[in-house]
What does this fold into?
Amino acid sequence: MSTIYKTLKSMETIKPQENQNIFDISLQEYGSIEKVFDLLEDNDKFDLTEDISVYNELKIGREAFKKDIVEYYNTRNLKPATSISEEEQYLLNNFSGIDYMIIEDDFIIY
It folds into this structure.
């Protein structure tokens, strides 16, 4: 039996969480972002910057690259989510800088 067939046969699916990107999924499932291209290939995706929908399932199932990192995330039930939502991007673009800082809160004077 070929290796590709074994890999495809053992594939599982997961649903991404809100604000997760392809790098977060790679880190969560394989322990490294080095497996991001395998993840893209398994899911017939070719764009690293494309947003992942929480309604679409992603195929996973290859062997973890760094098992200790995967175990760390699994035992603590951690799901990395580093993407910025549209609301957060709007707030960063329109309400940041010294005009919106509060002395002794986020503008600290020593």
Remarks:
- The chain has one domain: 3-83.
- Residues 84 and 90 are 10 Å apart (CA to CA).
- Residues 1-7 have pLDDT under 50 and may be disordered.
